Amino acid sequence: MPSTTSGTTALHTALLAHDLKPGDEVITSPFTFIASANSILYVGARPVFIDIDPLTFNMDPNQIESAITPRTRAIMPVHLFGLSCEMASIMAIAEKYGLLVIEDACQSHGARYGDKAVGSFGTGAFSLYPTKNITSAEGGMITTDDDTLAESCRVIRQHGMRRRYYHDELGFNFRMTDVHAAIGLEQLKKLNKFNQARRTNAAFLDSHLRGVQTPYVPQGCQHVYHQYTVRVAGGRRDALLEHLTKNGVGTGVSYPVPIHKQAYSTQELGYNNTLPEAERAAAEVLSLPVHPGLGASDLETIVAVVNEFTA
Ligand SMILES: Cc1ncc(COP(=O)(O)O)c(C=O)c1O
After folding, report:
1. Does the Cβ of 6 fall within 6 Å of ligand 1?
2. Is the CB of 7 inside a 6 Å radius of any atom of ligand 1?
């Protein structure tokens, strides 16, 4: 499990270790934090965005095969908000076409698909940024069961150095400090407890919220609720956002603009496609507090404020 300075550098290092290059294409989701796509751009490859499943907000595996070209090298599933992607279909397609799978698990520490944890299907990348389910203050991790790949990651993150001051390849300074590692190791011991608290909070919200679409959890998946994201139909999302803010409930929109519609993507990279479900989600989603620090009265306030609006 090589550590790095961030989730972004974990993704970047994993892509370099797999020798992703200019001209390669990586199929991924447009409905995610920009770092997923940026890591692909950093190695000179091109993100190919496919639409999402409107229920899970994750990449729709039915869209993958038609996006494959002779340049496709990898699929990057992003396990968004704490929920695993549909990994059985994704792994079957990857195997059929000989594609790499690099999982962006930056939001999904401990999430499970069947009996497996995310980050254990392909090469995984995790973020330890302070808002994540566990943190090292800033940091990232790469997960793999391939010792050679792990060693390549360690070399890349340390200026391409296998032997002290001998450099066989171009590398970077993506080293995690010992101080960050010490914090991360202590946090790791608390991951299950934190995730259980998030699940308990989410269950309360699921059963008490009215008038919004609560998170969908496919059978066999264990959600870890990095975000508790609801869908607000009828063009009322921004009004609910304002109502929550006015009443002191912390809220936010992840993500208001899908990556293929960001100014940099359209103006600099020439993306001009339409992905209706990603665009609809960007207009309709809103996240509510779900973190382990919430008490019973906080949860009741969140429910009361939402239900007052939707009544
Ligand atoms: C889906 C996703 N990918 C990648 C990253 C990048 O992680 P970091 O902020 O640690 O660089 C994040 C972090 O917010 C993320 O949410």
Report:
1. yes
2. yes
Cβ(141)–Cβ(2) below 8 Å: yes
pLDDT value of position 15: 98
Which protein residue has the closest C-alpha to ligand 1 atom 7? 7
pLDDT in tens, 178-212: 999 999 999 999 999 999 999 999 999 999 999 99
Minimum-distance ligand 1 atom for the alpha carbon of 6: 10
Q: Hey, what's the torsion of the CAs at 274, 276, 281, 284, to 10 degrees?
A: 110
How far from chain centre, in Å, is Cα 279? 17
Distance 8 CA to ligand 1 centre (A): 6
| Cα 170 to Cα 116: distance, rounded to the nearest angstrom | 34
Please state whether the predicted TM-score (pTM) of the whole model is above 0.85: yes
Q: Give the 3-state secondary structure of residue 288.
A: strand
* Whole-Å CA distances, 222 to 40, 81, 114, 197, 215: 28, 12, 8, 13, 12
Measured in Å, residue 223 CA sits from the centre of ligand 1 at: 18
Dump strand ranges (E) for 151-291: 161-163, 166-167, 221-222, 228-231, 285-288
- Token representation of residue 73: 């090298």
CA distances to 13, 43, 64, 165 from 23, in Å: 18, 10, 19, 32
76 contacts 104 by C-beta, under 8 angstroms: yes
Nearest to 76 by CA among 26, 10, 126, 7: 26
Whether ligand 1 lies within 6 angstroms of the CB of 104 is answered as yes
Rounded CA-CA distance 301/205 in Å is 11
- Asked whether 106 lines ligand 1 (CB < 6 A), one says yes
Ranges in the chain, pLDDT < 50: none
CA atoms within 13 A on the CB side of 87: 27
Q: Tell me if 32 CB under 6 Å of ligand 1.
A: yes
